[in-house]
Each structure stands twice: as structure tokens, then as C-alpha cells.
UniProtKB/TrEMBL annotation:
<comment type="similarity">
    <text>Belongs to the WSCD family.</text>
</comment>
<keyword id="KW-0677">Repeat</keyword>
<dbReference type="InterPro" id="IPR002889">
    <property type="entry name" value="WSC_carb-bd"/>
</dbReference>
<dbReference type="InterPro" id="IPR027417">
    <property type="entry name" value="P-loop_NTPase"/>
</dbReference>
<dbReference type="GO" id="GO:0008146">
    <property type="term" value="F:sulfotransferase activity"/>
</dbReference>
<feature type="domain" description="WSC">
    <location>
        <begin position="142"/>
        <end position="234"/>
    </location>
</feature>
<feature type="domain" description="WSC">
    <location>
        <begin position="245"/>
        <end position="342"/>
    </location>
</feature>
<protein>
    <submittedName>
        <fullName>WSCD1 protein</fullName>
    </submittedName>
</protein>
<dbReference type="InterPro" id="IPR000863">
    <property type="entry name" value="Sulfotransferase_dom"/>
</dbReference>
<dbReference type="Pfam" id="PF01822">
    <property type="entry name" value="WSC"/>
</dbReference>
<dbReference type="InterPro" id="IPR051589">
    <property type="entry name" value="Sialate-O-sulfotransferase"/>
</dbReference>
<dbReference type="Pfam" id="PF00685">
    <property type="entry name" value="Sulfotransfer_1"/>
</dbReference>
Amino acid sequence: MAKALFRLLKFLRRTQFLLFFLTAAYLMAGSLLLLQRTRLVIQQGSRGTPANQALPVPDEMTRVGIVDPRTLQNPRPGPRLLVGMDALQEPALDQRHGPRWLMSRNSELRQLRRRWFHRFINDQEPMQTAGFKAMKRTTEHKGTYMGCFTDDSRERTLKGAVFYDLRKMTVAHCQEACADRAYSYAGLAYGAECYCGNTLPAAASKPEECNSECKGEKGSVCGGVNRLSIYRVEELRAGARRRRNVIYRGCFRAPENLTDTFPASLIQPNLTVEMCSEFCSKKEFPLAVIRGQECYCGYPTGRFSLRDGADGLRCSGARNASSAAEGKYCLVYQTPVQDTRCTDRKFLTTKSKVFVALSSFPGAGNTWARHLIEHATGYYTGSYYFDGALYNKGFKGEKDHWRSRRTICVKTHESGKTEIEMFDSAILLIRNPYKSLMAEFNRKYAGHLGYATDRNWKSKEWPDFVNSYASWWASHVLEWLKYGKRLLIVHYEDLKQSLIPKLKEMVKFLNVTVTEDRLLCVENNRDGNFKRSGAKQKDFEPFTQEMKDLINRYILTVDEALRGRNFTGLPREYVPR
């Protein structure tokens, strides 16, 4: 017994010594690694590009248009600047400040972008909490509960408008959203989805089947799986709200046969805009058309596309009987009702054989382009990242794994060789860097729909932001041009100016066939929920001359690279003259 105890104690002493030795070795290795990484960071931090330097490129490469970093390993003497102006020519610069350095910085900038992205998501919490407190003031408004109903996604009755909120959905929030758009019913499903409409579903369900608790209101029921908890919306300041949400679209020449063009009509003596708008809203049509005492409701179609407006003076008497008798012109108003012909979206039923990226620099309008693509094709878009705020706005692909191939294309801001080559093709969205930088800075400090404050613009972070992100704007395009397998170049400004023609190109590139009416529906819903709100500073110029010189050099570099690949160069408004 004593011998066995002695052996046990000897073993424990050896084990203690071994553990002590391994712990000491682990700590020493960790310290050495930390010192090595600190040294690396210091070296990288010393590689900043002075704002007054341009990008040197050997002469033979300027004829090709795109910069190959391999040619810079032994550069010829006397490189010239991609500026096109003798006044800006400078002596040859160190290799680390050339295009190779510009493109190699992508890894560093991506890490910076991700840190800012995650910090932005965390910063959203106080804003969402504040919004929730505002909702709490109306939680007593419950409306009239109509019951639990079956929700058929293919034949949905409440299809007038759709809202999502994964964290803060409440009954009152849904009711206010639907009442604000002049709908009669508000339906909630899955605890976080809100649907609006003017007609109750035909199939009722058992009350216990609506068993999902509202995400933002404990104890309240917000539908269930394929089940809707439906409330009749009480009219809270309904008259003022409806009038506020009616938008004048203009004066247009009336189609030859209004009855065939518009599905619903009303003849009313002393007809007013409010009367016609309310009538069309109840019928769930987005357009209210007035000609004399006649009110017509419908959608934009090929016969009435709202593209060719007439002089407003021609409609000055459009509500008079004499003008109505002539029947030449009519007044058109946008009702609060959403055009639902293009709002149905779904995931691909089979995995896509072609893996398509929707690539852009941050702030270039990627979210808006996704809105357009989803409504045009009827399929969700995916994302390399996860943004809960975008999921709440209906981008269900945000929660789907970006490599699932169940989405029509995948949003990405990445631009490394590996990240690019994993895609079979890509839509490369390019926007004026001045606008992109300001949009991304606004998003960083005020979210997707807000504006940064004057204090933000005057802070130290703005010039640091420009110095880092301006080079990323250029390197993003250069690397996609170099490593992308099949590209469709889309300029944000062209998409904004010629929406339907450019959207047709994008849809064709995605190998999807769509109808003309669906494209007109997209045009009718072109802004979605992506217009920034708040005070926008007029004649605001945040860029110093030093910043402009830096950005202009990048613009000319990218322009020449695009032309070198036989793409159309940047729009004229980009290029400094």
C-alpha cells in the first residue's frame, strides 16, 4: 500500500513539473508572436500615401489600360502619371506607392471596413431602442381583432404592403404602418412580419394556431407559421395622413379608352383629389386619375406608362366639365397604396449553376440595386455580410448563407483575388467616388437613411476616411477588372437616369425573363425605402483641394483601366476637366 502511494506522489510531482513547463513555453510563444505582430502593424502604418502623390504607371501599361503589378517589380525609369495633365507630373515614386501598393491595400481596407460595419450594427441598438420607445406611446391602440386566418403566400389577400422587424415588431407598429398607407386591415405573422390590405382572407383558422409572440411586445400575439393575426385599423388622424401621402405625378395625355385602361372608375359631382384618392386606395390601386368629374384607378402600363408628361397648363381645367368632354388630358396622383405587381419574391427553387456577384464599393448604391433586381426578377438577393436592418426592410436573403446559391446574386464589397475568383460572373456597380465617399460616411454615422452631422464632417475622421477609402474605390474596380471572369459594368448614374433600359441589361445578364408591366411596377416603386431623410446641407463641400487632387488621380486611373478592357469609360461627370 505504501509503495503504491509513493508511486502516485512521484507521478503527480512529474505531472506538475510538466504542466508548469508547458505553461511557461506557451506564454513565451504568445509574447513573441505579439511582439512580431506589433512590429508588422507599425511597419504597415508607416506606408500611408501622401495626399499630393499620384499613381505612377510605366508607359507601356498605359496603352493597355489596366495595371499589372508584376511589371512594377523592375520598373523602367521615368514612369508617367495617369493624370493627363503636365502640371501634375512628378518624379518617379517608390514602388510601394504605385498601383501594386494600391491593390495590395485591399486586405487592410477590408478589415477596416468590417470593423466599421460591425461597429455600425452595434451602434444601431440605441437608435432601435429609441424608435421602440416612440412606438410604446401607441401600444394602447389595438384596433379591432378580427381573428386568426390562413396565410397563403401564393394567393395572399393582404398584399398591399409588407414590413419586417426581427426585433421590435408590435401590433401597434404594424397597425400604424398600415393606417399610414390608408389600408383597412393589418395582419401579423411569424412574430415579425406585417401585411396590409383592404380585404380579409377567406379561410379562417383556429385561434390557437396564431401562437407566435411579437418580437417587440411580450404577451402579444403576432400570427404564427402561415397564420395571420388580423386587426381592423382604427383611423388615427386618417384624413390628414391620407392627404399627406397623396403625391401629384403630373399632367398626362389621357389614353384613348380610359375604361379599358383602368380597372376601376367612379363618377362623382364635385369630385376632389381626396375623394378619388380614397376611392382608389380602398380598391388597392396605386394611381388615381382625374378627368373632370371622372375618377379612374389603376397601374402604370404600356398604354399609360407615365413617361411622357404634358405641360401643366394643359391640365389647368382638367377638372372642369368642358375639359372632361374633350377628354384629352388628365391629372395623375400616386395613392398611399403600393404597386404590388412586383413585390412577390422568393428564393430560387433549385441551386443556381452560375454564381453571380453584385459587387460595388461601399456607398455606391448596392442596396438600391438589390431592391431593383429583386422586384424585377422576383428572386431574393444574397449578401456576403449580414445586416439586420436590411433584413427588416424585406431583404430575406440577408439571413441566407451567401454560398447557398438560392439567391439571384450576392452583394459583396470584397475585392481580393480569392474572393473575386469564387464567382462565375459579376455585375460591377460603379459610382462617382465623391458621391460614394459621402454616402458611406453618412451610413457610417447615421445609418442607411440618415445624414452625418456637421460635427462629423469637421472631425478628424473625415480626412482619414477619404485618404483610406479613396484608394479602396480605385483598387476595388482595378481588381475586379483583373480577376473577374465575366463582368457587366453598370454606372450608378446611368441606372438612375435610364432605369428601365439599364435594368433590362441587368436582368438579361442574370438570365431572367420579365414582363414590361413588371418593369413598369419597378419604376413606380423605384425609390423603395432607400431615400435618406433628415436635414441635407445645401451647397455643402466637404472635400479640400488636396482631397480632390488625390481622388481625381484615382478617377483617371480607373477610367483608363476600363477603356483598356474595352468597356465604356467613366461618365463625363466623374472625370475632372
